[in-house]
Design a protein that fits this description.
The protein contains two helices and two strands. With 72 residues, it is of the alpha+beta class. It has a two-stranded antiparallel sheet with strand order 1-2.
């Protein structure tokens, strides 16, 4: 779904999903998707809404970090 949303945005690349450096923490498996590029506020909001709507009602936790200080 993220690929479909980002289709047509040639300046944005998606890496992943793949395991985090610390792949399991407190009995939760961790995966990451990295989106790299120039986002306007509208596209960033669409990404956030898509991600949270897809995990709603599932036994998943999601966090979105814009301009992370580290990638651990």
């Amino acid at each position: 779904l993220l690929n479909d949303l980002l289709n047509g945005h040639a300046n944005i690349s998606m890496m992943g999903p793949g395991p985090c450096l610390i792949s399991k923490l407190k009995n939760w498996y961790r995966q990451q998707i990295i989106l790299k590029g120039d986002f306007d506020q509208d596209l960033a909001l669409k990404v956030k809404e898509l991600v949270y709507s897809e995990v709603r009602g599932k036994n998943l936790r999601v966090s979105i970090d814009v301009n992370p200080a580290s990638m651990v």
